[in-house]
Amino acid sequence: MSDKNEKIEDAMPEGKKEEVMPEDITTEPTAEEHAEEHAEPDNGKSHRESHKHKKDKASEKVAELEGVIAGMMDKHLRLQAEFDNFRKRTLREKADLIKSGGETVLTAILPIIDDIERALGSLKEVADDDPSKIGFVLIYNKFQEFLKNNSIREIDATGKEFDVDLHFAVTKIPAPSEDLRGRIVDVVQKGYTLNEKVIRFAKVVIGE
User: Which strands make up the sheet holding 184-189, listed edge to edge?
Assistant: First the structure.
């Protein structure tokens, strides 16, 4: 402040220098002084608020990331379950295909079996040592072994109760005896199953 006073005194007329007193001189405060005058006392409150704000933002970010991770885990579990179901279904379809893959070919052989059985029926009066009969029996036995090896089974029908899942009724006739009423008294054409699946229904006659 002394430098300011000296400059002011120098600028005054010669006769007035002694009349100027330091307390009479007013000066404008500097920018630093103005800032210091209006500055609020720092008690650490603003620092705590800033730290709390950062902490809240971090918590929000963590919650957001946790939600993203939970969604990804749920999606992963769903995809895993869908894939497991697809794998099981594919294996089941493959097994079914293996079981019934030759169904068309095997079904086409059944009429041949029917013809051989009719031929054997016509040879009942022929001696068992007849070469023709021996040949027919040999061929018939080989066919039966072939069907057995390929899981084809004959449907048991004669004397059984009529079952729509296994039998096809051709006609009805008076039952030869009381115990055959409602039962199968004759088989017109044998039925067969392939791995417990009906590939040809047994054509039967029912007693009434």
Answer: 167-173, 202-207, 184-189
